[in-house]
UniProtKB/TrEMBL annotation:
<keyword id="KW-0489">Methyltransferase</keyword>
<dbReference type="Pfam" id="PF02590">
    <property type="entry name" value="SPOUT_MTase"/>
</dbReference>
<feature type="binding site">
    <location>
        <position position="104"/>
    </location>
    <ligand>
        <name>S-adenosyl-L-methionine</name>
    </ligand>
</feature>
<keyword id="KW-0808">Transferase</keyword>
<comment type="function">
    <text>Specifically methylates the pseudouridine at position 1915 (m3Psi1915) in 23S rRNA.</text>
</comment>
<feature type="binding site">
    <location>
        <position position="73"/>
    </location>
    <ligand>
        <name>S-adenosyl-L-methionine</name>
    </ligand>
</feature>
<comment type="subunit">
    <text>Homodimer.</text>
</comment>
<keyword id="KW-0698">rRNA processing</keyword>
<comment type="similarity">
    <text>Belongs to the RNA methyltransferase RlmH family.</text>
</comment>
<keyword id="KW-0949">S-adenosyl-L-methionine</keyword>
<feature type="binding site">
    <location>
        <begin position="123"/>
        <end position="128"/>
    </location>
    <ligand>
        <name>S-adenosyl-L-methionine</name>
    </ligand>
</feature>
<dbReference type="InterPro" id="IPR029026">
    <property type="entry name" value="tRNA_m1G_MTases_N"/>
</dbReference>
<dbReference type="InterPro" id="IPR003742">
    <property type="entry name" value="RlmH-like"/>
</dbReference>
<protein>
    <recommendedName>
        <fullName>Ribosomal RNA large subunit methyltransferase H</fullName>
        <ecNumber>2.1.1.177</ecNumber>
    </recommendedName>
</protein>
<keyword id="KW-0963">Cytoplasm</keyword>
<dbReference type="InterPro" id="IPR029028">
    <property type="entry name" value="Alpha/beta_knot_MTases"/>
</dbReference>
């Protein structure tokens, strides 16, 4: 299974890459996590949020083949325990599709993408900054995998 994280926002500081890679590198090939950055939509002086979010959504759509299983990361999505995440990931493995995790930009995900997603996953009721979302995702995916294979890390 390939998990693709499509994240709006580029040029993360080195500590973010380091944090993500700490966990990403531990994942096996059949549970791999790839990160693809999506450039921010244009936000001028008279910022048109809907337009910028629409541009970001279009850039995301261009990266999709159309047969992926889409999970939108949303503050108001459903909270999953690590056990539930592991169950979800176990089901993902049966689907035979790429899993795409969608992380929005400063104004969140475009509603068209939220509507298209198969699931909406909330990491916390707090609005988290983009760098922490990436690191938490990588760590929780690693933790879920260790749970599935019975590795002691998950305790
Ligand atoms: C800085 S947040 C943008 C917040 C934006 N105001 C909103 O309401 O979505 C950027 C992205 O990080 C992700 N994100 C932030 N906090 C999250 C959380 N608690 N759970 C899941 N995803 C989160 C979402 O994908 C969000 O679109």
């Amino acid at each position: 299974m390939k998990i693709r994280l499509l994240a709006v926002g580029t040029k993360m500081p080195a500590w973010v890459e380091e944090g993500v890679d700490t966990y990403r590198k531990r994942l096996p090939r059949d549970f791999s996590l790839e990160i693809e950055e999506i450039p921010l939509g244009q936000r001028g002086k008279n910022a048109n949020v809907a337009k910028a979010r629409g541009q970001e959504a279009e850039r995301i759509r261009q990266k999709l083949k159309g047969d992926e299983y889409l999970v939108a990361l949303e503050v108001k999505g459903k909270a999953w325990s690590t056990q539930v995440l592991a169950q979800e990931a176990d089901q993902w493995r049966m689907l035979g599709k790429d899993i795409v995790l969608l992380v929005g930009g400063p104004d969140g995900l475009d509603p068209s993408l939220s509507a298209k997603a198969d699931k909406a996953w909330s990491l916390s009721p707090l609005t988290l900054p983009h760098p922490l979302v990436r690191i938490m995702l990588a760590e929780q995916l690693y933790r879920a995998w260790t749970l599935l294979v019975g590795h002691p890390y998950h305790r």
